[in-house]
Amino acid sequence: MCAKLNISFASIRAQTAERHDARAPNRPKLMDTQRAAIANNLLAGLSESDFLLLKPALEWVDLNLGEILHQPREKLEFAYFPTAGICSIIAESAAATKAEAGIVGREGYIGWAIPLHAGSSPFQSVVQMQGRGLRIAASALQEAVRKSPSLSATLLKFIQVVMVQIAQTALVNSHNTIPQRLARWLVMYRDRMDGPEFAITHEFLSNMLGVRRAGVSEALSKLEMKKTIRTTRGRIAILDHSALEKLIGGSYGVAENEYRRLLSQGT
Amino acid sequence: MCAKLNISFASIRAQTAERHDARAPNRPKLMDTQRAAIANNLLAGLSESDFLLLKPALEWVDLNLGEILHQPREKLEFAYFPTAGICSIIAESAAATKAEAGIVGREGYIGWAIPLHAGSSPFQSVVQMQGRGLRIAASALQEAVRKSPSLSATLLKFIQVVMVQIAQTALVNSHNTIPQRLARWLVMYRDRMDGPEFAITHEFLSNMLGVRRAGVSEALSKLEMKKTIRTTRGRIAILDHSALEKLIGGSYGVAENEYRRLLSQGT
DNA sequence: CTGCGAATGTGCGAATTCGTACACAAGCTA
DNA sequence: TAGCTTGTGTACGAATTCGCACATTCGCAG
Questions:
Q1: What percent of chain B has pLDDT over 70?
Q2: CA proximity to B80, closest of B152, B39, B136, B157
Q3: Which nucleotides of C are covered by protein (CB under 7 A)?
Q4: Which pLDDT score, from 0 to 100, does residue B165 have?
Q5: B246 to chain A: nearest residue by CA?
Q6: What digits encode the pLDDT tens for the residues B101-156?
Q7: Cys bridge to B160: A25, A55, A116, A154, which one at CB 3.0-4.6 A?
Q8: Looking at the partner chain, which of A94, A157, A257 has a beta carbon nearest the beta carbon of B254?
Q9: Nearest residue of B to residue A150 by CA position?
Q10: How buried is residue A205: exposed, middle or buried, by Cβ count under 10 Å (0-12/13-18/19+)?
Q11: How far apart are CA B9 and CA A215, in angstroms?
């Protein structure tokens, strides 16, 4: 069952990975007229008419490492549909403690406050893996959502998925060890990347998980001893995806299943 | 600043607490025609026309302790607008580990999957504090939402609030000690109760927080030594709300602030 | 009033994580 | 190649939490 979830979610990855051949930097306007050719699953899954509603307002943007897409409590100017790269949603307290609540790659979008009529949110959205994507002005998205119930439904369904993901994060944070939380993080990131290897430092991971840097180093070496990953300076390669999943103990797959149920067309 | 948030959220409590005088048990049909007389803040804040859309389908129900309102992955039959009592939203993993992700009292509703077009969700909704409220069939709510954008907006805004609450839970679970997490729990429950005292066992709290029962006992006695609470067998009384807030360290108030920003009319 | 089950207080060793610190290694720049 | 910055491995005492266990106390039913 776990394997099945994984396969199906991985297949989403496979379907779109090869389409992302847009190497030309900084294309100012949308060139692909075929929505299916866009490597963002949400956009690719829209009906032709829904896509046409968005199309005039969509524009390509690079998502640069560390770029802050949304600042807490500031009005959201754009929603982003990544076609490559990963953004993470960071919750912070008044005391400035931070932790990653969820992540979004090309399977979704960020800027949920727009369809939720909230205008802004207390979350910060940051680009964690470099990539690119399409963005749309908040007002344009709002207008399109008003016109199309089916577009609205798609965007709202993804919010359901994200809620589940965040709740699973809460669950994992209270019940699981650092190696387990780390394994979950690695698997979730890997699902949204093209390759099994990515550039990441222990320091970075410690910030995401909200633990000591040294704790991450220890946990990584534990995982490496089990041959599930391989680490070199500044990079980590996933060797055994399913072994990592098993390590987590049932908290991986819940959000992925919800995504599949609500948003994976076909299959 | 923290105090201000607290006052405003507490004032919501004060506004509606005395209105809940519906002592007659099991009234089968809605008697109050004045929506403002209904002690659920979301319903009370609706426009007259939005409320009339819902009214024919609303019915009073008792919310009995331990009652399961939504089972994970089962189709949602009803949404619930509590007027008294507290429901909690529980996330669980495939390995059956559970933790409370968020709570809802008379300030909101449960059944978010309905406006999100999800039909069901992997969460479990359970009555944690006995009370009563109004429920509406999923199909009726869906129909009403389709007709009224403003009703839809209200329900979606509350989902934003809940997302923030769940994300704060994730943050607290990874950064804070048991006494702090306990303090947060107590404060959040107290905000949704009429009085400062409620019946609760350590065992129950340990399940909600996902820690040992003995850990809760220790944490409670620490809080009691600081004169912030008073415990007797099977019950806990809040003595110093603001001291508890300070203990938590900035993670309380974020969701409450978001609620105030989006949903507290007037003031 | 007595007995019983539920709730609570406490203890103990083990495991985990923390805070902090320091040494080493890798890769870049001059 | 030398030097510097950044990333990583490791250490150690302290604090926290865990798992488990057992004794006590409270409140209700008989």
A1: 85
A2: B136
A3: 6-12, 16-21, 26-27
A4: 98
A5: A95
A6: 999 999 999 999 999 999 999 999 999 999 999 999 999 999 999 999 999 999 99
A7: A116
A8: A94
A9: B117
A10: buried
A11: 38
Does an H or E element contain B209, and which? helix B202-209
**Which pLDDT tens digit goes with each residue over A214-262?**
999 999 999 999 999 999 999 999 999 999 999 998 889 999 999 999 9
Mean pLDDT throughout B166-193? Answer: 96
Nearest CA among A251, A125, A234 for reference residue A188:
A251
Q: How far apart are alpha carbons A237 and A247 in whole angstroms?
A: 17
CA distance to partner chain B, nearest, from residue A48 (Å):
20
Cβ separation of A113 and B164 shorter than 8 Å?
Answer: no
Residues 198-227 of B with CB under 7 A from strand C: 201-203, 213-214, 217-218, 220-221
Measured in degrees and rounded to the nearest 5, phi and psi for residue A114 equal -70, -60
3-class DSSP assignment, residue A233: coil
Of A99, A167, A249, the CB nearest to B171: A99
Amino acid A174 CA to nucleotide D6 C1' distance, rounded Å? 32
Q: Is the CB of B77 under 7 A from strand C?
A: no
Other C-beta atoms closer than 10 Å to the C-beta of B250 total: 20
Query: For the purposes of burial, counting CB atoms within 10 Å of the CB of B52, is it exposed (0-12), middle (13-18) or buried (19 or more)?
Result: middle
Residues 197-216 of A with CB under 7 A from strand C: 210-215
Q: Cα torsion at B81, B83, B87, B89 (round to 10°)? A: 30
- CB contact set of A262 (below 8 Å; sequence gap of 6+): A157, A158, A160, A161, B117, B118
Buried b (16+ CB within 10 A) or exposed e, A50-82: bbebbbebbebbebeeeeebbeeeeebebbbbb
Per-state percent for chain B, helix, strand, coil, to nearest 5: 45, 20, 35
A190 phi and psi angles, rounded to 5 deg: -60, -40
| pLDDT, mean over chain A | 88
Instruction: State how far the Cα of B43 lies from the Cα of B50, in Å rounded to an integer.
Output: 9
The CA distance from A67 to the nearest CA of chain B, in Å, is: 21
- Name A51's bridge partners: none
Which residue shows structure tokens 């974020």? B254
Residues with CB under 7 A from strand D: A 201-203, 213-214, 217-218, 220-221, 231, 233-235; B 177-179, 210-212, 214-215, 219, 232-234
Q: Over pLDDT 70: what percentage of chain A?
A: 85
Helix segments in A93-148, DSSP class H = 138-147
Cα separation, B127 vs B237, in Å, equals 20
